[in-house]
Every structure is written in C-alpha cells, then in structure tokens.
Specification:
This is Lipoyl synthase. This protein is an alpha/beta fold. The protein contains ten helices and ten strands. Strands 1-2-5-6-7-8-9-10 form an eight-stranded mixed sheet. Strands 3-4 form a two-stranded parallel sheet.
C-alpha cells in the first residue's frame, strides 16, 4: 500500500508573501530545496529554515533532494540580505543551515558567523539556531560557529551507524558524533540532532544511535519518517506508524533527552521555535 501522508493545505497569501520576500532578497530555504512536506504549514507560521552558501552541495547524500556539484561563489551580501528578510518577516526565531561546502577553506564557518552577527545587529532580540555541516571536524571552524552568538547548535546524524556510509557516503558517523560532542563540551548552548526512520534500520539500532547521541551531549532530538524525494534516491524500507513515533518519543525522554519531537512528518527544524522551551 502506498504511503500518503497528510499535510496542511497552504494558505496562498502566506506562501506568496514568504516567497516574495525570499525572492526579493535572493535567499534560499531548505524548505524548498529539500522539498520538505511541511513547508506550506511553516510558511503560514512565518517560519523557515534559511539555507546559506548557495543551493549546490559538494556532497551527494542518497536521501537528500538538494542539488550536488561544485560549490557556487559565496555571496558576500548574503548576511545583510538575510537580516533584511528576517526583519521584514518579523521573525523571533530562525534556523540557519547550509549545504556542505568542502571546497571552502573554513567549510563556510565564517559565513555562518557573519550571518548570525548581521541578523542580530538588525534583530537584537532574535534567537538563532544553526544547523551546520560537520566542517570535517575542523575545530577552528567549530569554534567560529560556537562563538558566533547563536542560541542553539545542531548537526544531524541522520541515520544509524550501519547505514551511515550508504546514506551519507562522504560523511562519517563517528565524525558527526565528535562534532556534536565538541559543541556540547565547548559551549553552554543546547545541542540538537536528528534521525530519519525507514532507511532500513532495526529498532534496536535506532535506540543505540539515540543513546550514542545522548552520551556525547545532545539534549534535543527530532525523529521523523524518511520519505523518498525521487525514484533515484534511497528507497524507503519501512513506514512507521504514528503510534511508534509516540512510543519512541517516550523512550527518548526516559533515556534522558530534554526535548523530543517525534512524528511521521517531523523534520529537524519542524517547530524549532517550540522545541526545548
């Protein structure tokens, strides 16, 4: 039986306004690039995860719908454009993410920090969550991000150890754990990560990965059903029920996580402004 998740129908006015402001400022959102099923609902709440450093990723993860190839030139005016758009949208909480930029000397860490500073200068009371790549575990790059003035730091583990190499061939499971541990130990900030379900993991593998994330200092976790973007991407091996997501959420809390979002359509930045309040 084909899985047909239900998503909220978009309100044309909210979607059109969001897209107009994004286009005017030449900005990208992960919502559009990754074909997120929640983008209409989030736009209606004037919420979005902004994607900086272009729309072309230098890695080719088998689950991801973002374009891959050689990185595009970095727009030096992007921090200012981002700050202007966020002010115009009247946002109080934003998530800033990026494609992987393995072609850049600092992997894009300095641009992340520039964006945070520009946004906070124009919107001083805003809270900014950074959803970052692994920066190849370059601690200088990680320190730049930690010292940027962000409110929360996130990096997605995405899947369990056994599947990591096939799902994220240019990334590394243990390197991601080290990045999350560095964030947790070197900053006073909340640290968040995300796992997709349905890629072929067993339930015990899922629980083990959750435990590993908790052990390195991750305090907030999101769990969601993987949905195959196109026939060329990693296929869905299993669809989980909402009852399972509810049950695994309770297990996560029992393990010791401070905040958990778990559901079929939950994504790493879904209702980010509410998680951990």
């Amino acid at each position: 039986m084909q899985f047909k998740p239900k998503v909220k129908a978009p309100h044309p006015e909210f979607v059109a306004n969001m897209q107009k402001i994004l286009q005017k400022n030449e900005l990208m959102t992960v919502c559009e690039a990754a074909a997120c099923p929640n983008r209409a609902e989030c736009y209606e709440r004037s919420s979005a995860t902004f994607m900086i450093l272009g729309d072309v990723c230098t890695r080719a993860c088998t689950f991801c719908n973002v374009k891959t190839g050689h990185g595009v030139s970095v727009d030096a005016d992007e921090p200012k454009k981002l700050a202007n758009a966020i002010e115009e949208l009247g946002l109080q909480y934003v998530v800033i993410s990026s494609v992987d930029r393995d072609d850049l000397k600092d992997y894009g860490a300095g641009h992340f920090a520039d964006c945070v500073r520009a946004v906070k200068e124009k919107n001083p009371d805003i809270k900014i969550e950074l959803l970052t790549p692994d920066f190849h575990y370059d601690t200088k790059a990680l320190d730049i991000v930690i010292q940027s003035g962000a409110y929360k730091l996130a990096h997605n583990q995405e899947t369990v150890r056994r599947l990591s190499k096939s799902v994220r061939p240019q990334s590394d499971y243990d390197r991601s754990l080290k990045v999350l541990e560095y964030y947790a130990k070197k900053s006073h900030l909340r640290v968040k990560s995300s796992l997709m379900l349905g890629l072929g993991e067993s339930e015990n593998e899922l629980r083990y990965s959750m435990r590993e994330l908790l052990d390195v200092g991750v305090s907030e976790l999101t769990l969601g059903q993987y949905l195959q973007p196109t026939s060329k991407h990693h296929k869905v091996e299993k669809y989980y029920s909402q009852e399972f997501f509810d049950a695994i959420k309770e297990e996560a809390y029992a393990m010791g996580f401070d905040a958990v979002a778990s559901g079929i359509l939950v994504r790493s930045s879904y209702f980010a402004e509410e998680l951990g309040r």
